[in-house]
Amino acid sequence: MPRAGSANFRMKKTRFESKDSWNYNLTFRTHGVIEKVYKMRDTIDCYFSPDLQVLYSSKRTNEKNYYLVENISFTRRGNSVTTHTHRYNLHETRLDTMITTPGCVFDMVGASMYLRSIDWNKIKIGDEFPFKVAIGKDIVNVSFRYTGQQIVEKDETLKYRTRHFVIDIFDDAFEQSKEAAEVWIGDDENHIPVKVRAKLKIGAAEVYYNSSSNLRYPFTSRVVIPRR
User: Fold this and answer.
1) Nearest Cα to 47, choosing from 56, 38, 34?
2) Please, which of 46, 108, 157, 212 could form a disulfide with 24 given CB 3.0 to 4.6 Å?
3) Cβ distance 12 to 30 under 8 Å?
4) Cβ density class 58-87: b for 16+ within 10 Å, e for less
5) Mean pLDDT by 10-residue block, N- to C-terminus, for the chain (228 residues)?
């Protein structure tokens, strides 16, 4: 499996609309052979309230000769969430729509934060955590399903203790709805994604943890085995 690219997650305290907030940032770029075939530079900024309610998401896609911006604002009233999606390129607006739906609604990056915020002291195998994701003009039903603890081996001298979750997507647009993806989260208080596997039409794409800094808690899920 060739290395397709690298991604970086960053989280920091900031201000959004003059209020305290968290900024969760994802950047992705292609490498190697993939870079020559299909160059990609994607950036997603997601803003959360101090209690980790998603407020705003901005995705900037720069792929080969294709450039697109998609901004999503989230407004909550009672048990309902209204999303306002504005998608545009350098020449025109491609989408401008508002949708109101009950329940938890995120963008894709916000969904990863939701998974990391689950209280693992209260979960058991088989528990499901349903939510919805705003994708363009659609609201897609998704669920995280907990399957238990697993060991992820990086090599002979490095392993990670993890919690394994399966992602089920309930939408006709996705050919693979059940177990569309899997996530292995480091089993310590940092809840760092160690491995992600997403099924494709042909094969699969896998993401592996590489490094981190300025963690709040000790990285105890990482197990180093001395060489013999």
Assistant:
1) 56
2) 46
3) no
4) bbebeeeeeebbbebbbeeeeeebebebbb
5) 81 94 92 85 93 93 90 94 95 95 90 89 94 90 95 91 94 67 95 88 80 92 87
| Cβ atoms of residues 24 and 9 within 8 Å | yes
DSSP state of 179: T
CA neighbor of 182 nearest in space, from 200, 161, 167? 167
Please, what's the b/e burial string for 40-57 (b: 16 or more CB within 10 A of its CB; e: otherwise)? bebbbbbbbeeeeebbbb
Q: Which residues 6+ apart lie within 8 Å of 205 measured at CB?
A: 4, 197, 198
Q: What angle do CA 187, 144, 95 make, to 5 degrees?
A: 125
- What is the number of residues in the chain? 228
Beta bridge partners of 43: 27, 60
One-letter amino acid at 137 equals: K
